[in-house]
């Protein structure tokens, strides 16, 4: 091996070592913590969905509530970590962006705020998920609502608005302890975090983008009356929606 090769190899090793041993910034630590928390939460939700698909659990809502409760507690834990000071993991969990959107600093999701002004974002608007068999994404939530808010310059300066997954949609439900069975009770009505404007949130069902594995004619939704899940609606039923973008 030549002297030049040895020198290049040594420099590369030093560069690699310097990168590995460098102290992460508060924001880098925050991003890592948020991604790890989301991974655990998503695994929890998927586990509950898998059990539901096999019909081995009658209390899927209880399982979801426990997943959420564990996930939400991560934000509280972040506040006491010195390594996160100066990052977006410290402070208020939700940030109102002043453009009819709210950012969740735990999940990284940006949510649409509904209004009562009669336009595309009106809280009273309902949409279909699909027109019918074979139950593709061709209902009015996709062809009318999302196509409109993503058209032209988009909404709030972005064009990536979409229907949230079931796991995502549950992250704006109010946190409440759930010990099991039907005794789980949401502390407020509608069961939505105040940052998302409860006055313009229906205490009813909101579509998610997640199809029910056992029957593709149904899609999962979240019932914001009490925070429970549901999939009792065919995809061609009319249900409320809230758009989201971003995430981890």
Explain this structure.
The chain is α+β, with helices and mostly antiparallel strands. It has one domain. The chain is 33% helix and 12% strand. It has five helices and seven strands; from the N terminus they run H-H-H-E-E-E-H-H-E-E-E-E. The strands form two sheets. Strands 1-2-3-7 form a four-stranded antiparallel β-sheet, with no helix packed on it. Strands 4-5-6 form a three-stranded antiparallel β-sheet. Strand 4 and strand 5 form a beta hairpin. The N and C termini lie far apart (45 Å). The N terminus is likely disordered.
Write out key terms for the chains shown:
single chain, 248 residues, three-stranded antiparallel β-sheet, 33% helix, globular
Sheet-strand content, in percent, reads: 5-15%
Biggest beta sheet summary: 4 strands, antiparallel
Kindly give the count of domains.
1
Q: Note the quaternary state here.
A: single chain
Number of strands: 7
The N- to C-terminal Cα distance equals 45 Å
- Measured as a percent range, the helix fraction is 25-40%
Number of helices: 5
Order of helices and strands: HHHEEEHHEEEE
Q: Can you list the strand order of the major beta sheet?
A: 1-2-3-7
Task: Give the helix/strand class.
Answer: alpha+beta
Mean pLDDT figure: 88
Rounded to an integer in angstroms, the radius of gyration calculated over CA atoms is 21 Å
Shape: globular
Are there runs of 5+ residues with pLDDT below 50, and where? Answer: 3-18
């Amino acid at each position: 091996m030549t002297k030049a090769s040895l020198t290049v190899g040594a420099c590369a090793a030093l560069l690699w070592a310097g990168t590995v041993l460098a102290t992460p910034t508060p924001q880098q630590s925050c991003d890592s913590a948020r991604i790890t928390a989301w991974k655990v939460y998503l695994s929890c939700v998927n586990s509950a969905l898998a059990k539901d698909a096999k019909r081995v659990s009658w209390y899927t809502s209880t399982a979801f509530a426990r997943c959420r409760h564990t996930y939400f507690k991560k934000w509280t834990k972040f506040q006491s970590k010195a390594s996160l000071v100066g990052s977006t993991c410290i402070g208020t969990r939700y940030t109102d962006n002043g453009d009819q959107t709210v950012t969740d600093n735990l999940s990284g999701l940006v949510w649409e705020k509904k209004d009562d002004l009669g336009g595309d974002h009106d809280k009273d608007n309902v949409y279909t998920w699909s027109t019918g068999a074979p139950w593709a994404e061709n209902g009015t939530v996709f062809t009318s609502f999302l196509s409109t808010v993503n058209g032209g310059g988009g909404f709030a300066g972005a064009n990536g608005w979409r229907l949230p997954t079931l796991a995502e949609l549950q992250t704006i439900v109010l946190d409440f302890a759930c010990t099991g069975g039907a005794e789980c009770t949401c502390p407020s009505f509608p069961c939505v975090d105040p940052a998302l404007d409860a006055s313009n949130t229906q205490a009813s069902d909101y579509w998610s983008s997640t199809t029910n594995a056992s029957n593709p004619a149904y899609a999962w939704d979240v019932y914001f009356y009490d925070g429970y899940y549901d999939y009792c609606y065919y995809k061609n039923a009319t249900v409320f929606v809230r758009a989201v973008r971003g995430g981890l």
